[in-house]
């Protein structure tokens, strides 16, 4: 069974990456509030565990997998090395949680940089922070200097940082939800869609306009009412509508601003997610 499918329903896939003993299983349990029942152990590498879809607040059904990677990644790696390419080791998650535990973080950086290069949402985590003398603050500063992204210090045992982690997961995956809605035909006849066009629309090239035209045509074929606006007129446009749009599509540059003012009931995605192929 594909890790993203459960009885025909699309599930989000979150992969946890970290060396043995980094707290991956405990973190899955802490996020879901239940003992994760194992679906598969990939015996070929003995490094990947895939769980049945579990409920996580504000996300619904999510498939978690935890991957340690082969010993060579942790013992012989260098910061510039690439991860092992086999799909059964790296996987293709919608989001990667990379768990850091030690100052020697070469292996963790391999996974982090791999998913960053793929354009996947990645959250760096100082795991089992309660077992570190300063709750992981020094290690967090070292890591932030290396990757330019502030990690979250999390303790599954004490519950520290779990609220912030859940919020970060929901925030970063919001555009993926909307992408699934369109791909899985959950948006159709009569469903209002709002297109928030790129800030650089006036200077747009054919390459920039093509995704918007392609998506507009697809929505019209589905008989969806479509409204368009720019970011500065989004609030006024929403006030004109009789009800909140089912889906809002914008560009990556405006994503955070659109997310901050969109109706809670509206799904969100980006032109790049929908046209990534």
Task: Reconstruct the topology from this structure.
Elements: E1 5-6, E2 9-10, E3 12-17, H1 24-32, E4 38-41, E5 48-51, E6 54-56, E7 60-67, H2 71-75, H3 87-90, E8 95-100, H4 106-117, E9 122-126, H5 137-147, E10 152-153, H6 162-183, E11 193-197, H7 206-221, E12 226-230, H8 234-240, E13 247-250, H9 255-261, E14 267-270, H10 271-274
Parallel strand pairs: 3-7, 3-8, 8-9, 9-10, 11-12, 11-13, 13-14
Antiparallel strand pairs: 1-2, 4-5, 5-7, 6-7
Strand tally: 14
Please give the share of residues in helix.
25-40%
Return the string of H and E elements: EEEHEEEEHHEHEHEHEHEHEHEH
Mean pLDDT: 79
Structural class: alpha/beta
Low-confidence segments, given as residue ranges, are: 1-9, 42-46
- How does the overall form come out from the CA principal axes? elongated
Radius of gyration: 20 Å
Number of helices: 10
Main sheet record? 8 strands, mixed
Quaternary state reads single chain
CA-CA gap between termini: 23 Å
